[in-house]
Amino acid sequence: VLLDAARGDDARGFVVASTLGQRAALPERATEALRRAGLWHIVSVSGLHVAVASLLALALGLRLCAAAGLRVTWAVVGAWALVAAYVALTGASAPAVRAGIMAGLFG
């Protein structure tokens, strides 16, 4: 669904490609431009993406737990689940899986 929505719109395609690693969302001319400029790596999901997703998930979980009066443990468990879902959604590349494991162990 995201790929269909992104086709034909360069900005939307770039956002989908750079956040989810779905390179097919980029038009061919954008793909070639990124390759020629040496920036093709920008559209691959890395540990930085997973770290940001982890931080956002934990912040959201902490706010929700504080509002509901729940223990912080639930925020951490929820963040782990969201990070695992994000890693799966991005295609579970080796760097994303590695960062997801590290976020689960040390985050």
Please provide a written account of the structure.
With 107 residues, the protein is mainly α. The chain is built from six helices and no strands. The protein has helices at residues 2-6, 10-20, 28-37, 47-68, 72-89, 94-106. The chain is elongated. It starts with a helix and ends with a helix. The model has no long low-confidence stretch (mean pLDDT 87).
Strand and helix map with partners:
Elements: H1 2-6, H2 10-20, H3 28-37, H4 47-68, H5 72-89, H6 94-106
Helix pairs in contact: 4-5, 4-6, 5-6
What is the chain-wise order of helices and strands? HHHHHH
Strand content is under 5%
Structural class: mainly alpha
Q: How many E-type strands?
A: 0
* Rg result: 16 Å
Coarse morphology: elongated
Average pLDDT, rounded to a whole number, is 87
Main sheet properties: none
Number of helices: 6
Percentage of residues in helical conformation: over 70%
The residue ranges in which pLDDT falls below 50 over 5 or more consecutive positions are none
Briefly characterize the structure:
The chain has helices at residues 2-6, 10-20, 28-37, 47-68, 72-89, 94-106. It is mostly helical and 107 residues long.
